[in-house]
Amino acid sequence: MPRITILTHADCDGICAGSIALSMYSSARVFFTKPVSLLNDLENTTADMIVITDIALNRRDAHNIMREMERKKSILYFDHHPLPTGVSEAEVRSVVEKYVHKENVSASELIYREYSTEIPKERIWNAIYGAIGDYSDNTPFVKERLHNWDKISLYFEVSALIMGIKTESFGSYDSKRRIVKTMASGDNPTDIMGLVKAASEAVNREFDLYEMIKRMAKKTGKIGYVKQIHGFGFRGSSALFAATVTDAPIGICIDIKNNKIDVTIRTRDYKYKLNKIAEKAAESVNGSGGGLPSAAGARIPKGTLDRFIKKMNSLL
What we know:
This protein has 13 helices and eleven strands. The longest helix has 22 residues, at about 195-215. Helix 1 runs antiparallel to helix 6, helix 6 (about 125-135) packs across helix 8 and helix 12 (about 275-285) crosses helix 13 (about 305-315). The strands form two sheets. Strands 6-7-8-9-11-10 form a six-stranded mixed β-sheet. The protein has a five-stranded parallel β-sheet with strand order 2-1-3-4-5. By secondary structure, it is of the alpha/beta class. The chain folds into two domains: about 5-195, inorganic pyrophosphatase (n-terminal core); about 215-315, Diaminopimelate Epimerase, Chain A, domain 1.
């Protein structure tokens, strides 16, 4: 039996896409990665086949990643993020066995549509959950299928998943791996003991977080920012709240660890393309950035934050 590894993102869309992949390849091992870690994770994966879902290519590592992909026996790659500057779909397609890529569509929808005739039809729920969690539930495919079920129930499942994984109880990779396996088996997020309670706690914490960020956030140019907010799962909310309370179009949450700085970026004004701004600003300080137009991130060296923010403002 071939050894199969699934590499997916640890957010709602990644979890749901990973569960669909595991429905198709039930013997696979599931690991979570992110754009800045993908090259290293590929180099250290010895599986016969690798399924990648919901992981963007970052510009700094893109060509090294593609060279590593070409060295592997079999890679199936499902993603919806914009490709970095200088990389074409044809280039990616030439180094993998299968490449399914489309922007403005969730990774969960992409992989479900690929395998819909080979997995239980109820896995459409997982595709819908991922699409809702990715704010991509307005595609024709998802909108048509939302008519088949009670929409409120589906949104409740998504809310339980998104908020639950923000807590310490379900924030670890082991806990998220358990969620992937549960959903791949046909159960829903709310069937996981303790997840709904954890989600409720997260909602209350998010209201408290808003009040805290009102006191902590600062503004420079068009960017509202906040530093060192406890709780990895709340960085996206923290970035958005930083923009909200400072009346800035862009908000960032800054987390400093050892010799690196992780920056989470959100916007209230969708005319800005955050993925391109993050990419260029991070490159200017020898870092790496990217993501989606409305939700992006960067990893930059310690000591470069002021220059990074200055570059972001100049790009804005």
